[in-house]
């Protein structure tokens, strides 16, 4: 490629790590020059809790503005932080292969959730994680925490909390899987739609050589599973901070999706599991994945999901 690809990123360690990893892949596959441009977002500067910021889009919007203003050509988002509504003038040009979608417990003395003492303090700001923790261990003292991944790990290593829950993918990207004391299985603890996946966003109109670079980074299986998972959120009209877990997987030609909505106190949940056979063209498959997410969400809504939990 003749021109430089400018990638916009937040300044957090996680954003820099995942942007750097994508930049390396672009350089290796295309030989293109890649420049990394730092952009500050409200989600980075605000001290309010993530749920009080409304969740949706606090990290994404400044990056999207920079894209639209032509300050950069590409941004790398954590897919789970990206609002489901499409952004005018922008497209997701590639969804690379997903990392581990599970949540992980980081606990004092390497304890598992089951082994934590009665009334132990566990930090998380996510309503979904709060509900899942309360359903398994109603005795725990759950604390709302904020901050980047290193700060959250520090709550445990500095002795302020007995444990925190974080996404395995973020820990992996920062090379911090050594602190994990337990991985929660997706069958028991489904995670946020799109967790562990990245979205590479660009302007709608891009040069053909950038489009080809992005095509080379796209991963079909990841794209189909996250399309199904994210359609659950979209159809429920739920934000990324809603107490909703969704996990899709592909087994040969079968796409399987399980979606769960929790009451915030963890005492109740609704689950819908659906499958679809994938056939036809890539566009047909995308449509089938979205339709699967819609069916799961509609079942949840007709079972009372909107009454069970605050979704938006
Ligand atoms: N909510 C913040 C956030 N957004 C993306 C990740 C990393 C995992 C991912 O890319 O899905 C995290 C940290 C976490 O949830 O522990």
TrEMBL record:
Residues 224-301 form the Porphobilinogen deaminase C-terminal domain. It comes from the Bacteria. It catalyses: 4 porphobilinogen + H2O = hydroxymethylbilane + 4 NH4(+). Residues 5-205 form the Porphobilinogen deaminase N-terminal domain. Binds 1 dipyrromethane group covalently. Gene3D superfamilies: Periplasmic binding protein-like II, Porphobilinogen deaminase, C-terminal domain. GO terms for molecular function: hydroxymethylbilane synthase activity. One of its GO terms (biological process) is protoporphyrinogen IX biosynthetic process. Keywords: Porphyrin biosynthesis, Transferase. PROSITE patterns: PORPHOBILINOGEN_DEAM. Transmembrane segments: none annotated. The modification S-(dipyrrolylmethanemethyl)cysteine is found at residue 240. GO terms for cellular component: cytoplasm. Its EC number is 2.5.1.61. Belongs to the HMBS family. Tetrapolymerization of the monopyrrole PBG into the hydroxymethylbilane pre-uroporphyrinogen in several discrete steps. HAMAP family: Porphobil_deam. Monomer. The porphobilinogen subunits are added to the dipyrromethane group. This is Porphobilinogen deaminase. It comes from Homoserinimonas hongtaonis.
